[in-house]
Amino acid sequence: MRVLGIETSCDETAASVVTLDGAATPVIASNIVLSQIEEHAAFGGVVPEIAARAHVEALDGIIEAALADSGTTLADIDAIAATAGPGLVGGLIVGLMTAKAIAAAAGKPLIAINHLEGHALTARLTDGLDFPYLLLLVSGGHTQIVAVRGVGDYQRWATTIDDALGEAFDKTAKMLGLPYPGGPNVEKAAATGDATRFAFPRPMKGSAQPDFSFSGLKTAVRQAATAIQPLSEQDVADICASFQAAVADALGDRVARALARFRQEFPDKATPSLVVAGGVAANRTIKATLHKLCAEAGFAFVAPPLKLCTDNAAMIAWAGIERLRAGLSQENGFDFVPRSRW
Ligand code: KG4
Ligand code: ZN
């Protein structure tokens, strides 16, 4: 099986070819990702209209590069898989319509993929994981804990009731005058900061409700920052370190609950796995917290390489292969309309 994947749901224009030869390990034959970060940096966040236009300009070249890189032509491809939601609708339209056009012209099946399914199945591409497993997805747009039970069989156990975690990092950076994207810059500043200087809240910690919340923490950061104007470099570092400690603590509490629930619901799974995905998974403090939690709870901690944790098209091509293999690709196709809130 050889599938061309296309991803345009946010600010990465991406195409990839993934192949699966019988029972062998899948191969990422090509994986091209063009980030639009520079186009959006001046605005401190992703501007949907700019993103859609940048996808239009780049996508055909990226697809050509992905095919060339993999040494295949369209004739060798079994199907085309494209992200059809959730995401920014302009980008989704560009990617899905391009995929439909190519599939129609080449006479190939078209598989509409849910972006979150791409993230959810990545660990099977990189680590050959068996179902079921637990997924923590922490990106700029999503903060979810999902029980991944099979292809097309996902149960969301927790989500954020306000901001996504990456969004909280980005907004914190903005308040402190750090450049976009905020996450890596907050982490960098935190490295020289005192994590005990500010006692920021740990939202939802201890709550019986499983969900996340980060807007209260963001407000606390804003109050701390406005109380000490002008901020010295050390103040910024201390706020970042204290924010990151609060996030790791709050996140850890939520994940610990989910690990316990997983044990209860899947008692036959001898060594269950927690998989992380999304850009925030790059954060070393967060990773260390999760690693420790998993070790204590007897879970394997699976963090696919960052390039496959953040937005990419290999995960979309792979989801296409999974759906083809499971006989679940028929319900999709040419009639599928992009769903920004899918
Ligand atoms: O998965 P991703 O690349 O794109 C989507 O949101 O789909 O995630 C981007 C998010 C941004 O909010 C960014 O600030 C955050 O991940 N991020 C980080 C780090 N690197 C990226 N957050 C915390 N620490 C990091 N090192
Ligand atoms: Zn994503």
TrEMBL record:
Fe cation binds at residues 115, 119, 311. It comes from the Bacteria. Its main location: cytoplasm. It catalyses: L-threonylcarbamoyladenylate + adenosine(37) in tRNA = N(6)-L-threonylcarbamoyladenosine(37) in tRNA + AMP + H(+). It is found in: Cytoplasm. InterPro entries: ATPase_NBD, Gcp-like_dom, KAE1/TsaD, TsaD. GO terms for molecular function: tRNA N(6)-L-threonylcarbamoyladenine synthase activity. Substrate binds at residues 137-141, 170, 183, 187, 283. Signal peptide: none annotated. Its EC number is 2.3.1.234. Keywords: Acyltransferase, Cytoplasm, Iron, Metal-binding, Transferase, tRNA processing. Residues 28-318 form the Gcp-like domain. Belongs to the KAE1 / TsaD family. Required for the formation of a threonylcarbamoyl group on adenosine at position 37 (t(6)A37) in tRNAs that read codons beginning with adenine. Is involved in the transfer of the threonylcarbamoyl moiety of threonylcarbamoyl-AMP (TC-AMP) to the N6 group of A37, together with TsaE and TsaB. TsaD likely plays a direct catalytic role in this reaction. This is tRNA N6-adenosine threonylcarbamoyltransferase. It comes from Mesorhizobium caraganae. The gene is tsaD.
